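Q: Could you fold this chain for me?
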Amino acid sequence: MKKIVRRYIFVLLGVAASGLFYTAVSLSQSSIEEMIVVVPHPVLRQQAVPILADDEETVQLLQEMAEYLEDSVLPKGGISLPQVAVAKRGFVAMIDDEAVIMMNPSLVFTGEEVPSLEGCLSIPQTFGYVNRSAGVTIEYHDEDWIRQTLHLEDLEAFIVQHENDHLNGILIIDKLLAEAPERVRDINMPLE
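A: Sure. Below is the predicted structure, expressed as C-alpha cells.
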C-alpha cells in the first residue's frame, strides 16, 4: 500500500509543483532549491562528464541533494547534477523511500516500454507521457565509490531513466507522446 501511495504522490507532484514548490519547503532546503536551473539553461542540454574519484566537492553536493530529496515537504523522484548547473554524471533517486546517490551510472533496459506520466523540476508546470522501460538494471558508484548494481521496476525504473536522460542532455519535452495513451498500464498495476 505504501508503494501505491508513493506512486500516486509522484503523479501529483505536478499539481503541487505549480503553486507550492517555492513556498512549501523547509529553510534548510533553500540552497539546493535556489540552485535548480530551468529551461532554457544551456547546461540542461550538455553531455555530462564522468565524476572523478577524488572529486569530493561533487560528492558533497550530491549528499546535499540527497538531503534535499529526503527532507523536502513535497515528494520528488530524483534530481541530477545538471539540474543544479553541474555538467557531471551523477544524480540522486528515491529508491525504497531513501535518497540514493548514483555516480557515473550505466543502464541496461530490461522491461517492455510503457507510458510514464512525468514532470520535471527544470521544466515547471510541464507534464506528459513519455515511453520508458518498465524495468532497468543500473550500475553506479555510490558516495563511497563502491560499485553497486540494482534492478528496478516501474516507478523507480522510470525515475532513474528520467535522471539519466538529464546526464545526456535529454529532457522530457524531447520525448513527450503526441497524445495520452489509450491504455497506460495493466489494470492491476497501481498508478505511478
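A (continued): The chain is about 30% helix and 30% strand.
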